[in-house]
From TrEMBL:
Keywords: Endonuclease, Hydrolase, Multifunctional enzyme, Nuclease, Nucleotidyltransferase, RNA-directed DNA polymerase, Signal, Transferase. The keyword Nuclease applies. Residues 330-352, 393-417 are annotated as: Disordered. The keyword Lipoprotein does not apply. Residues 130-180 form the Reverse transcriptase/retrotransposon-derived protein RNase H-like domain. GO terms for molecular function: endonuclease activity; hydrolase activity; RNA-directed DNA polymerase activity. Residues 234-312 form the Reverse transcriptase RNase H-like domain. InterPro entries: DNA/RNA_pol_sf, Retrovirus_Pol_polyprotein, Rev_trsase/Diguanyl_cyclase, RT_dom, RT_RNaseH, RT_RNaseH_2. Residues 1-17 form the signal peptide. Residues 11-66 form the Reverse transcriptase domain. It comes from Rhodofomes roseus. This is Uncharacterized protein. PANTHER family: PROTEIN CBG26694, PROTEIN NYNRIN-LIKE. Pfam families: RT_RNaseH (PF17917), RT_RNaseH_2 (PF17919), RVT_1 (PF00078).
Amino acid sequence: MQGVLAPYLWLFSLVYIDNIVVYSRSWNEHIDHLDKVLKAVISSGITLSPPKCHFGYTSILLLGQKVSRLGFSTHHEKVRAVQELARPKRVLDLQTFLGMTVYFSTYIPYYSFIVSPLFELLKKDHKWEWTAECESAWQRAKDVLQSAPVLAHAAAGNPYRLYTDASDIALGACLQQVQPIRVGDLKGTRAYDRLNKAFGEGSAVPSLTLRISNKFDDSPPPGQWASTLDKTTVHVERVIAYWSRTCKPAERNYSATEREALAAKDGLVRFQPFIEGEQVTLVTDHAALQWARTYENTNRRLAAWGAVFAAYLPNLDIVHRAGRVHSNVDPLSRLPREPPAHDSPLSDPSIPIVTDQVKPAAAESAAERSPAVKMAAAATIIRSWEDVLDTAPSWGPFSNSPRRRLGPRRGGQIQVE
């Protein structure tokens, strides 16, 4: 089937095994695309079953997910099946539950952190004991799946924002993108009410995306009102995907700087198919990632990860944002759940151990540039794509922090320009 429709793949047709999907921007265009696809199928001698063919749908169910022009969302039937699962009584039951939820992990922020107590029960020679922590993780996993947001289709040419964070238990990242959308598609949301009010008052089109920092702004300027409110195009920040994983035993002994750098590195690698060759802003709540050029005698681990950062230059910017407004991934280290106990003092977040040596003068200069006070005063209600979806969490990313660009390594040091 791939060979039969090769001229049309990724233009207006997709093939998965024996499933053919034809997509178009308008009805007339869709008729033309269907004509080309059906002619190619007929000329190849392949027959189609009419009862299995569906035409003119605005959304379809594919591989357990709902796909529409607005993006990807979870299939309600699949989610309900997870909600109706009984409490696991044995390892096999737990494997079934985790197998069903991990498929939708891209919809769930900090998924690995949430279910980490459940994964502990799957370890070899681990005694089965369903504790209160396991019960909380099981319930939380079902709750966040129930409220999963709509994930956007990635749009080439629009800037990406990669938000990363780490705790002593897990790493997490959220890939988002500022995209245009018609106001009519926002009906029933707070953003639509805000736009409707501005349109009625004759005010300028309000911006739904705020700058990450005072010195850095990759958001497009607000446009003009169209003839009607619903036809007006605005820009919102939409989630492309979430990613998370639990830390390996050795990684839990890393310093805070190393864990944050690991989360950033793994986030870049994970989302490489989306961001390679595109403009990317890496947003972190760990200011040391901006000032890597002040480190001397950087260990091999950080030096190796620096090579990954360098691979994305010159399209990679690194921006610091305080943890208090880093809410789309920062709950990794702030959720009200005690981490598992470890013998190493490095696992205690109250002990600020840093293995890198920083020049005193550079450290003092960094402290003077700290945006913490400004950010506390500038914090406002965030209006991002999650904030305008009824089924989405009410967080979104922006801040007022300085920008730093990661440069090539010189003399064994990771440079920032």
